[in-house]
Amino acid sequence: MDYMIGIDLGTTSTKAVLFDDQNQVVAQANYGYPLYRDTTDMAEEDLDEIFVAFTNALGAVVRKAELGKGNAIKAVSFSSAMHSLIAFDKDWHPLTRVITWADTRAVNYTEELKSTGLGMEIYQKTGTPIHPMAPLSKLLWLKNDQPDIYKNAAHYLGIKEYLFHRLFGANKMDISIASGTGLFNIFELDWDKQALEVTGVTKDQLPETVSPYEYETGMNKELAAVLGLPEDVPFVYGAGDGPLSNLGVDAVQPGVAAITIGTSGAIRVVSDKPVIDPKGRTFTYALDKDHWVVGGPVNNGGDVFRWAKDNLFDAEKSTAALLGQDAYDLMTEIASKIPAGSDGLLFHPYLGGERAPIWDANARGSFFGLNHSHTRANMLRAVLEGITFNVYMVSLALEEVVGSLKSIQATGGFARSPLWRQMFADIFEQPVTVPQAFESGALAAVVVAQKALGQIDDLYEISKYIGKSNTYQPEPENFEAYRELAPIFIRLSRQLQTEYDNIAAFQRKHARPAEKK
């Protein structure tokens, strides 16, 4: 049997999925690592912890393949979280941990760049909104706040590029990941001169950009032995997790949107050319040079649901454990008892600042409309609805750029929750389809590998492997509540923006020592 492995490098875990020659899942392994928030606005990962998680996950599924019994691994391919940054010195010693997309310490330099108009000029060439998530802003922060690191940095990579460097000694970045750095000109397919001038970084400090179909062979012998893989197995670069999520749920036709809610979230559609929003609200990232994903990312997805579980329902979490029940299932069961609209309680989910639709790293979360009748169950449903309303706001901006959305394909952890799926259908007033293939990112990475090795000619062949789908139809009895509340949610998010800077400044000034690990 010939196998392929899809690797999904996420914000808090790495997953490896073993696929057979019919692209069916045979085995999977998932290993987590912490996201360090030692100080306000920090969000970093440890390089060694990521590498251990990666080797554990990959090694686990390789063992399931039982190589040497007529079985072979034909390729390993990657879907990766975007916007990460790691600085190395000239001898490739790391100078930083992984500074992730969720890190917002560059907020001041981001706002300065946006205020001059230069930010919009750069956005119009790179397709990456000016925000602390992007390596562009992170480099400005290093330059101003970490001058010793900036001065000694000879190389900059992201999380996936670090793994390839450690495995193969390579110094390359696929154009999909590059297109999310804020440093890459998506029309010229090269590092942007103006963005480099702003950061003071040279092309020599950045990786060579390559196609997502590029691959490496000749792995480090010791690491190959640890993984149980032959040294000549191709490792395909693959692409960013956002673009591959669209491919993985077959949301590649015009007007077909993919909504993903994992730790964070996004809504995206595929275009055959780069598309720029005149208002700078949406991103444009490459899947490859012929397919571009246009959309908006949100910082606050499943992590907000986790916050609610951990802080509002601690006792219920313990009860679920005693009963052998999944805590999230119990939470959604509790929320389902509350009617649509949470009895007039709204929640703005901006616990980690926000990217789309407001692009404000200083944004903060809030409940609005609380009264004596509201319970924790109301609060929980309002949290789920708030995340959904926020993605709906992004969709309104996206439609201004790419036109009306015809249908929605859902993926990510939320797609496993019937309540949440129905909530999206009701708020968007559109059918929401959930493909059977939950491991959409890893599947898409494998299809990229098949194209890289010449096994298929067209990425659209993925439609053969998506499997059966479940479609959730909107329930008209819920329309009235959501139609009334959505405009309030949107207006309120704009009105609160006038005070986000002030409350964020207060929080930074008065951060308690207990919050610093």
TrEMBL record:
Gene Ontology molecular function, alphabetical: gluconokinase activity
Keyword Transferase: yes
Enzyme class, spelled out: transferase
InterPro entries: ATPase_NBD, Carb_kinase_FGGY, Carb_kinase_FGGY_CS, FGGY_C, FGGY_Carb_Kinase, FGGY_N, Gluconate_kinase
Matching SUPFAM superfamilies: Actin-like ATPase domain
Pfam families: FGGY_C, FGGY_N
Positions of the Carbohydrate kinase FGGY N-terminal domain: 3-248
Domain named Carbohydrate kinase FGGY C-terminal: residues: 257-450
Keywords attached to this entry: Kinase, Transferase
EC number of the protein: 2.7.1.12
Family named by the database record: Belongs to the FGGY kinase family.
Name assigned to this protein: Gluconokinase
Lineage: Bacteria, Bacillati, Bacillota, Bacilli, Lactobacillales
